[in-house]
Amino acid sequence: MTPAARVQAAIDILDQVIAAARGGGASADRLAAEWFRQRRFVGSKDRRAIRELAWAAIRACGDIPPSGRAAMLRLAQADGALAGLFDGSTYGPAAIVPGEPVAQGGVLPAWLAQAMAASGLDEAEQAALLDRAPLDLRANTLKIDREALMARLPVAAERTAAPHGLRLPLGTPAESWEAFGEGLFEVQDTGSQLACAALPVQPGQSVVDLCAGAGGKTLALAAAMENRGRLLACDIDRARLSRLAPRAERAGALVETRLLDPGREAQILSDWQGQADAVLVDAPCSGTGTWRRNPEARWRLTPKTIERYAAMQAHVLDVAAGLVRPGGSLLFITCSLIDAEGADGLAAFLATHRGFRAEPIEALLGRPHRGGWRLSPHHDGTDGFFFARLVRL
Ligand SMILES: C[S@@+](CC[C@H](N)C(=O)[O-])C[C@H]1O[C@@H](n2cnc3c(N)ncnc32)[C@H](O)[C@@H]1O
Fold this sequence. Notes:
single chain; 393 residues; alpha/beta; Rossmann fold; 3 domains; globular; binds S-adenosylmethionine; methyltransferase activity; RCMT; MeTrfase_RsmB-F_NOP2_cat
């Protein structure tokens, strides 16, 4: 492909991303994957270049741009070489017309910037939410330790602050390696590893991962429990939960799964009421802490969405509270940095659940935040998380 044709391809993908952001359609990642699937003639170098251009334009526009072309023109304003590719060549973008619409730049929509500032995140923190994320691994200690894993990998990896964590350059095809097929590691952000490690689990205990999804954190719990005891992974989403079993098999992790009905979780978990030594609540949230991976997500959020997630968080925390035995622990995690989806929910929980108290946390990265702990891309180089550990008295 010519460089100009790559620019037009990125504009086409951006148009789809913008339409999906307006209409609640698929994520940018999915749309791009589908776009490439339909054009198998596009080689891997072109794909990488097109994706880079499209994602750079997504990062450059704080609010939803009027069109893909307007978003790309925003980038071109600061990049003469890119502007030069608007040359009207075959498959390339039409020449720039003086006065044509250019998308507004910026980091976040104004209301989100305000919500972030009110949650204690300054401009540098907000900008870093759109950085490019590295690729982090967690050595699967059911099979191998970190040092032995480093020796098995085909490229050099750096140790991270997480006890079993390694970091690789962005774009490393780690999931195509033999060591991945053998279950020697999981791809998992360092922040996610550290948040999960804040739940004190021991081999032999009874542990519930209430919002397990496809089991990213469940597998870390299984490793911490050395596969001894009972580990139950639940979710209301059948498709996500069904992805856990093959992952657990690859990792050699022993996990039971249980599909929940929204609103009937406590009945379906009646045999676990007051029985769990530890419960993990990796609550559904807006994911503001993971924008490094899907920066267009900030165009989709509304204040109503945040309210809806906060209500879901209160609900899952309530369900989780019923499962914890006296003296047992509950870890509340969200991958959002907006207080309405973290610290406020924690305060509301403590006000209505007098039988629980928040315990101090000392993670290897991050800082205390309003009774819990915060990790952020700017401060810690991880995805953004809020987590709090509660103990049932
Ligand atoms: C942040 S995701 C979990 C990610 C997962 N723990 C991981 O590490 O990969 C939140 C999950 O909560 C689930 N969820 C939402 N409402 C729920 C409920 N009432 N009970 C249990 N799970 C729920 C969603 O389906 C979603 O999979």
